[in-house]
Amino acid sequence: MTDTVASLMAEIADVGTDPSRGGYSRPVYSTAELDLRSWFVEHAERRGLDVQTDRNGIIWAWSGGVGEGAVVTGSHLDSVPGGGAYDGPLGVASSLVAFDRLAERGVPGRRAIAVFPEEEGSRFGLACLGSRLLTGAIDPDRARTLTDADGTTFAEATRRAGLDPARLGPDLETLARIATFVELHVEQGLGLVDHDRPVAVASSILGHGRWRIGFTGEGNHAGTTLMSGRRDPMVAAAVLISDVQRLTRRVPDARATVGRLVPTPGGTNVIASHVDVWLDVRHPDDAVTRILVAEIEAAAKAAAAEQDCTVVITEESFSATVDFDPVLRDRLADLLDDAPRLGTGAGHDAGILKDHVSTAMLFVRNPTGVSHAPGEAVEDADAETGAEALADGLEALLGAS
Length: 401
Ligand code: GLV
Ligand code: MN
Ligand code: MN
Description:
By secondary structure, the protein is α/β, with parallel strands linked by helices. The protein has helices spanning 5-11, 31-46, 89-104, 129-135, 140-145, 154-160, 172-175, 191-195, 233-249, 286-306, 326-335, 349-353, 380-400; strands spanning 50-53, 59-63, 70-76, 111-116, 178-186, 199-205, 207-216, 220-221, 255-264, 270-271, 274-283, 310-319, 322-323, 341-344, 358-364.
């Protein structure tokens, strides 16, 4: 039986479902994500692809021999907590179907599908960790010491996944094999609905970063501590969260989010001793992002002082705005019947690779426009159209390489 994108997505529909949050929780190297990686390897081997996992945990499935000058596609299989079905897996399933189309058409040429680990940064806090390690965008010493919510280090998680953490880091030999990278992804907005088209080509990725803001006060008893005698970091965090919205709404095109807050110790009848708040800020102009973050930092310091607390602010990651190669973008758009060119506010491994190899992205229509939530959607017919478009794009690039 011939696989379709819909049939492949149906095969993994039960993997990593999250009954408490809804949707899927597939953190990198969890049982769910490892099951998905095995599922991919099985499909790749069934197609006769040569499958290798590199020292950074990126799975490569090769056709036409391992080596330089390859046209590469792929995406990721990890998810945010309670995420949708398509962010990542749609690109992986579409890559398999696109490779089937290329084989049916008898298209020659060296190509590979790449599956990147920890694209979301939902377990170890740093998005696109696999592609950052591959390209040298993160110091492997720092990567090894990143910890998840249970205190497991990335080094330990990679060891448990069968990798050698000492070998994490820049892999210029592997990087040099990629001539062009094309990532297909579910659209994370309503651009294609507005255009009434199934597929778009990416024009840009909004610059974005993550900051950890840790407020420290004094843990104490909820009943015996007078309101006047408290040093409550939760109140400082609450004030900050409201300031984040107020400050960001003044800046056209800016987005800032606090989606995660962890109080220590986290008891109903306990005044917290410490609260960590994670801030995500995005804007097309990186200088504007920096100014906005500086304003938020000042607000955090004022909120801490008001509650007699202290605050420590740490930048966990920053990715500058990416403008994809306009020549490749327009070439793909022309090939795809003048597909719309859309920017995105979401980060992708393609954005990390873009500084090193010729890179492009395709987006597939999402009728709800929702992403990073269970409401994320793709119509089956659009998924197949997306895979055909990917095959057409890869064929053109293989013809040129
Ligand atoms: C990843 O999807 C991100 O944009 O945070
Ligand atoms: Mn993604
Ligand atoms: Mn995502």
